[in-house]
Design a protein that fits this description.
Radius of gyration: 30 Å
Strand order of the largest sheet: 7-12-13-16
Shape: elongated
Mean pLDDT: 89
Order of helices and strands: HHHEEEEHHEEEEEHEHEEEHEEEH
Helix content: 10-25%
Number of helices: 9
Structural class: alpha+beta
Low-confidence stretches: 1-10
Length: 442
């Protein structure tokens, strides 16, 4: 405790004690059950407790040797004061446990009272055991600044790493591009050489914020080998544009983009010996049908959708405040036609889903909204944490220059990642939205 006694403390404020009542009772969860009270398990908060923690690990090696598995145990102390215990036993079970419906590595390293020595007197896996409580390994992991484990079992080598850092949640998702499942799915695009000598893009597809117009312009500039000032996007007037289908199912970049690319190939052929001025009034039409099979189709290797996008998102909590410190979102979009637009889509989707996960309530009465807009609990700008968008840019199919696109998938893994982070934070599984018992819940 540091105490500054050099000045006058006559004006020091006395912190008011909280009134003791029903809300004064709290329950430690997760790693805090050990980190805040290590002496309960290890008998001391000091050096003796550290020694006890090392013995908890060593005793597992001794138990294996007493059962006849390995006759050498090596204990090494390193210069950074870390300690390594090596044995030649059967190896810690780490694979999936059907009875507990969880992986054994998670049970043994991350759950108190999980172990394989409860039945030593009833023909269990061990005849003799120094510890039977299922506490030592998990408690030592929780109390350590970091822990690494290398397990050799069944011909495999498993490497586990644990660090006393921020609570983190991870979630993955996949999302189709295109309507799929045998439904009609056409993309259509018309390139018209106007009286101004420029290429006018006409595609009957709504641009609802995804930047389709920009994508089509870039595809024309790239595939027709034109400059930006030679291309005009005419929008989606139904009077002059071919029907390109719904703007849904993350389909427009891939499906209408491929139709646009095909129209560009025809334009390039026509431009081989003529200029745009010579082609005034001509139209070049491209169409792409994203053919798929209906559900239950009796064909070998049925195709439900023409392509898929993939995503992994990570939520990092501030362990002091319990609020989100950072969101990381990595998305495989195929070829990123417009990387900046992709990043914007990712950031917007993450923010939308943070509200969905943490604050939003949308009460309905027989399908009719009953709340006012200002009371829905939409995520506010001052609540938004750092968001790192990672665009995995690699060509997908030989369609639309390798683009797959990005849409709804930006919002799919966010809420599960946040829920998992809070589980790591306090050990509580939250199974309803918005998530209960968070600093964001009113």
């Amino acid at each position: 405790m540091r105490n500054n006694q050099s000045g006058d403390n006559s004006m020091a404020k006395v912190k008011k004690r909280e009134e003791y009542g029903d809300d004064s009772i709290e329950m430690l969860k997760g790693a805090d059950r050990v980190r805040k009270k290590p002496s309960v398990i290890f008998g001391s908060d000091g050096l003796e407790g550290c020694e006890h923690a090392v013995f908890e690990i060593l005793s597992n090696s001794i138990d294996e040797a007493r059962e006849g598995f390995g006759n050498t145990i090596t204990v090494t102390r390193f210069e950074d004061k870390s300690i390594e215990v090596q044995d030649y036993g059967r190896g810690i079970p780490v694979e999936f446990n059907r009875r507990e419906n969880e992986y054994n590595w998670k049970l043994l390293f991350c759950e108190l009272y999980a172990g394989g020595k409860y039945n030593t007197n009833d023909g269990g896996s061990y005849e003799y055991s120094l510890g039977t409580n299922g506490l030592g390994l998990c408690a030592t992991q929780y109390a350590s600044e970091y822990m690494e484990a290398e397990v050799h079992s069944n011909g495999y080598c498993y490497h586990l790493q644990f660090k006393n850092g921020e609570p983190v949640g991870l979630a993955c998702a996949m999302k189709n591009a295109g309507v799929g499942v045998g439904l009609p799915d056409y993309g259509r695009c018309k390139l018209v050489i106007g009286d101004d000598g420029k290429v006018h893009i006409r595609a009957g597809a709504s641009c609802i914020g995804q930047g389709l117009g920009t994508v089509l312009v870039q595809l024309v500039v790239t595939n027709a080998k034109l400059t930006r000032d030679q291309v005009v996007y005419d929008g989606n007037s139904t009077f002059i544009t071919p029907d390109s289908g719904d703007t849904s199912g993350s389909r427009q970049t891939l499906v209408t983009g491929e139709a646009c690319r095909r129209a560009c190939l025809l334009l390039r052929d026509a431009m081989e010996y003529r200029s745009l001025s010579d082609l005034k009034g001509q139209e070049f039409y491209g169409e792409y049908y994203a053919k798929t099979n209906p559900l239950g189709a009796n064909v070998p290797n049925p195709v439900s959708h023409v392509a898929y996008g993939y995503a992994t998102q990570m939520c990092i909590l501030d362990k002091e405040t319990g609020k989100i410190k950072k969101m990381v979102a990595a998305h495989d979009v195929g070829k990123a036609i417009n990387p900046l637009s992709c990043e914007g889509q990712i950031e917007g989707g993450v923010v939308m889903s943070m509200g969905y996960a943490l604050t939003e309530q949308y009460p309905l009465d027989h399908g009719k909204p009953t709340a006012k807009y200002g009371t829905l609990g939409l995520f506010r700008s001052h609540q938004i944490p750092e968001i790192k968008a990672i665009v995995i840019d690699k060509p997908g199919l030989n369609l639309a220059n390798g683009a797959i696109g990005i849409g709804e998938i930006t919002s799919i893994p966010t809420a599960p990642a946040i829920a998992q982070a809070y589980y790591r934070y306090d050990g509580e599984r939250r199974r309803s939205l918005p998530l209960d018992h968070t600093p964001y819940k009113k």
